[in-house]
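SAMPLE LOG
Freezer: B-3
Tube label: C17
Construct: single chain, 390 aa
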Amino acid sequence: MSALLDGLRADLAALSDQALRRQRRSNALPCAPRAMVDGREMLAFCSNDYLGLAGEPRLAEALAAGAARWGCGSGASHLVSGHYAVHDELEAGLAAFVGCERALYFSTGYMANSGIVPALVGRGDAIFADRLNHASLVDGMLLARADMYRYPHADLAALTRQLEASTAKRKLIVTDAVFSMDGDVAPLAELLALAERFDAWLMVDDAHGFGVLGPAGRGAVAEAGLSSWRIIYVGTLGKAAGVSGAFAAGQADVIEWLLQKARTYIFTTGAPPALAEALLASLGLIAEGDDRRRHLAGLVACLATELKLTRWQRMPSRTPIQPIRIGGNAEALAVARALWDEGIWVPAIRPPTVPAGSARLRVSLTAAHREEDVLLLARTLNRLEHTILG
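STRUCTURE (predicted):
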């Protein structure tokens, strides 16, 4: 056998030995707290469907109506012939919803982040990024070929020193709004103040805040009361919005530049217009979703109150992302397996997704969960902490 394949198999074995090998599970039911895996019903705390819209019948009906009207595919890239009137309607609706002049719809959040960064900066420029930013932002930084400076998580003093020392012509500060593995919220007002002081762009990836935070779910930037032409706002449409895709919103000329230069927008087939119909319906449900958000906040408070952990740690988070820090990879997997054995599905997150020594359970709460679901999870974790040895 080839040394190439032998080496790959050895690397796979090493992942298994380090408790780092991922396992994919197939759910036989629509996205909801009740899942069916291998014929077994599970209570799932895995998805980013924060408002419980992924399985919402009204979105399914809008998608079906969109497919009946527009067909299944777009046929080409947006800049050739794959852009439709309903895409225009969606982009206008997204821009108005988040209070920006214009928006651009991308097929995925990964494509948005990895395309926007190199469209804004390049060789000789500088990017300043929180060390816990999502991988899609990191990949966008690498594609940009600009000088990269990663500051310790939420460390404004370190970021200030990096900005003061920079002589780059163009500067870009990049941050998650809600950090996907910690659940905390970036200091956006302070970051904007630094962007203004050092004449920099501020790119905010609000994948986990859009639909959940802020008035009517308009996101973390709206919650902070910020508005600036410097802000490039990125929202994800496959999490709280319950459908698929992402968008960038901001000042009209900035969005026009992204349309002209973001390679992940230019060189890919346009998203099916039927999805835009579903997303327009989703925007309406998000705007009217205060009851869902109140219920979700109540579940977050319930989990925080009912968890009585001493060795493991619920990390501080006011968002639906509720991480439980375990520590070692093997122990985190053991806890996830023990929960699975009791019919509770919670993913174990390990390096390189999180720093070494901080393996954790990532509990995701949604408005579709019930209080009794959260109570069951909390009581089970309280019990397991005393039966699983580190």
